[in-house]
Each structure stands twice: as C-alpha cells, then as structure tokens.
C-alpha cells in the first residue's frame, strides 16, 4: 500500500500516495437551521478535491415554496452565491427526515478541484422556516 508521510511547504504533516483510502479524506460539516443564510463553512489549507457530498434533513422546512441548498466553491473575495456548484441538482431541505440525500458530483472534473485558499459553502434558496440538518462534504488532499 504506497503510503508515505510528508512534510508540506506550510510545515504541516500529512500523507501522500495512491492507495491510502480514507486516511487522507477530510470531512466538512455544513450545518443549517432556520436562521441560516448563505454561509461559508471551510477554507482549503492546500489543494484538495471533493469526493462526496451527503445531506441529511433533521427537521424538514415547512414553507409552501421550495427550500433547497447547493454546495459551492468560491475564490477569496467572492460571495458564496456566485460560486461554482459542486454537484448536479440541489439538496431538498424539505426532504424526508433522517434520510440521507447523496448529491451527484459535477461531471466537470475541474469543478471538484479546490485550490488552496478556496472556500466551500452552502447557498440556500427559499424560506427556511423550521429546516434543520447537515450537509457533509468529503475532501481528499491533492
């Protein structure tokens, strides 16, 4: 299994190699509740790549209209609403409670590359009312 420890230019210690599986995956939780607006949840400390996005509704929104979330990446100085969506479709914040929603990652490979200093966040649409839950983004060090 080709796993090597490596000291990166920023002084941090990490792992590199082709086949080290989950060891090099970081998970970012993007929690939301009725008070949530568009938000930034993470800034990449170095080059990374999105490998998964899974959401879970804890309390469904009750507004008459659609209530959705899109996970986006943005460069420094850019609002999350203007970012690049990392998946197709959106997460339904009025979806079935306690049921995972696995979002299909973008088929454009470059969309999933997260350069150092790039933020990841959630763009909310609709009226949140009671909506509460979490979206977890899996990232691998590149």
Can you characterise this structure?
The protein has no helices and twelve strands. The protein has a single domain (about 25-140), classed as Jelly Rolls. The protein is mostly beta strands and about 140 residues long. The protein has strands at about 5, 15, 25-30, 40-45, 50-60, 70-75, 85, 90, 100, 115, 120-125, 130-140. The strands form three sheets. Strands 3, 5, 9, 10 and 12 form a five-stranded antiparallel β-sheet that branches. Strands 4, 6, 7, 8 and 11 form a five-stranded antiparallel β-sheet that branches. Strand 1 (about 5) and strand 2 (about 15) form a beta hairpin. The protein is about 0% helix and about 45% strand. About 25% of the residues are buried.
